[in-house]
Design a protein that fits this description.
Blueprint: H1 3-6, H2 17-50, H3 54-82, H4 84-102, H5 108-134, H6 142-171, H7 173-178, H8 183-193, H9 198-212, H10 221-229, H11 232-266, H12 271-299, H13 301-322, H14 328-351, H15 356-374, H16 376-387, H17 390-411
Helix pairs in contact: 2-3, 2-5, 2-6, 2-11, 3-4, 3-5, 3-15, 3-16, 4-5, 4-8, 5-15, 6-12, 6-14, 10-15, 11-12, 11-15, 11-16, 11-17, 12-13, 12-14, 13-14, 13-17, 16-17
Length: 421
């Protein structure tokens, strides 16, 4: 494999290379998750300094999700065209620099503009890190490893919570975003160490050979989606995952964006108590993702994903209706575990639904078209908070989780394609 093909320095072939890839992918999702939560913890400060309404504050979350959707769609295509590793590296540059620039903004529109730019990298990195990892890890361990990888996102939440508790009271919200420049160093190191997956290299070599022989099969932006939508099976699977991803993210990001504010404003917790409870929730989510991955390798992707989503749907109303100062910590821990489960299975379930030559485009497209629909969730809860309460919005999110579990349970088969082949 050449350096050009690999996107970095060639490393000796061994069956443990996936562990090195896992470390970089885990760190990538960790900083991705931390970056996303910086906004949630800064909302109160931003509302005060910029004079934002609740709807405008919710719009910042929606703008973030819209940018992640666009980034994820193009990131998937870039990963098919230019390589998984190379795309991850560039996405880290985009979101790190874009997020650091947020610290220099002075009004809603400046902040929204740079947030959208940073979100392009956030959305692309999430999709491509999962695709990269799926094409490295052995099949029999795939969901356990990818479920653990999803825990990186939740570790990022914990990191963001701890950093916010330290930085916000002393240095203010701007420094919370300035530190996002640090992952650039990780991107440079990843470019040097991690080679492209063998499955992607083989697919590119085959396409090049076919082109040289006069067979037009190169995977370009147009042809990748033509392959998806021109095949009834691929088209149906794309639509089902687009729908499932829309419901999943509508629920997940709506709740995640507003939970800190819900605990502060409607349950009247101080910032220190709220942060402590959120850490407990995220630690439980980490366990939920890891255990869900193991269970999915043992009992199947489909059943564990569906149970996690429907279980989350059933539990959200319990938090809203039955919370008390005495039980809220226990409710949040149980909730954290449950809503981590679908994400512990999602990456493997999706990547195994599409063949290698269209995987990046199909997963990136389906997941992120779904994210466009989910982008309305934070603003929707902001509207409901203005007219009523954040808790009412959470009940709407519960409905989204129910359909997120129902669609795959009824229609999406598992293990259709092996990413190593």
């Amino acid at each position: 494999m050449s350096s050009a093909a690999s996107g970095g320095v060639v490393t000796p072939k061994n069956d443990k290379l996936w562990i090195i890839v896992f470390i970089f992918a885990f760190l990538g999702l960790m900083v991705d998750g931390a970056d996303l939560m910086f906004l949630s913890y800064s909302l109160t400060s931003l509302k005060r300094e910029f004079g934002l309404t609740s709807v405008e504050a919710g719009m910042l979350g929606s703008i973030t999700l819209a940018g992640m959707a666009v980034g994820g769609i193009f990131g998937g295509w870039m990963a098919d065209r230019f390589g998984r590793v190379r795309t991850v590296v560039w996405t880290i540059f985009v979101f790190s620099i874009g997020t650091a620039a947020l610290g220099m903004t002075n009004n809603f529109w400046e902040f929204a503009t740079f947030r959208f730019i940073a979100a392009l990298g956030l959305g692309a990195e999430y999709v491509v890190c999962n695709t990269l990892m799926a094409e490295y890890v052995p099949t029999e361990k795939r969901t356990t490893v990818l479920g653990t990888l999803q825990a990186g996102w939740s570790v990022g939440y914990v990191l963001a919570t701890l950093l916010a508790g330290w930085i916000l009271p002393i240095y203010g919200w701007r420094w919370l975003f300035y530190i996002a420049i640090i992952p650039v160093g990780m991107a440079v190191l990843m470019q040097r160490i991690v080679p492209e997956p063998a499955a992607w290299v083989a697919a590119r070599a085959k396409a090049a050979a076919n082109k040289a022989a006069g067979v037009v099969t190169t995977v370009k932006k147009e042809s990748a989606y033509k392959l998806i939508f021109g095949n009834p099976g691929h088209r149906r699977m794309f639509a089902l995952w687009m729908l499932t991803a829309g419901f999943l993210q509508f629920g997940y990001y709506g709740v995640n964006n507003w939970m800190p504010s819900y605990l502060e404003k409607e349950l009247h917790m101080d910032f220190k108590s709220m942060a402590g409870y959120m850490v407990g929730t995220y630690v439980a989510m980490i366990l939920g993702k890891i255990i869900a991955g193991w269970l999915a390798d043992t009992f199947g992707r489909r059943v564990i994903f569906a149970l996690g989503a429907i279980g989350t749907a059933a539990f959200l109303p319990i938090i809203v209706i039955y919370n008390t100062p005495e039980n809220i910590v226990y409710l949040l821990v149980i909730f954290g575990f449950l809503y981590g489960v679908p994400y512990g299975v999602n990456a493997t379930y999706m990547t195994e639904s599409f063949e290698t030559k269209i995987r990046g485009s199909a997963v990136g497209g389906a997941y992120n078209v779904g994210r466009i629909g989910a982008a309305i969730a934070p603003a929707a809860i902001g509207y409901l908070a203005t007219e009523g309460s954040i808790g009412i919005g959470f009940l709407v999110m519960a409905g989204a989780y129910f359909f997120c579990g129902l669609v795959p349970a009824l229609f999406i088969r598992e293990k259709l394609y092996d990413p190593l082949k």
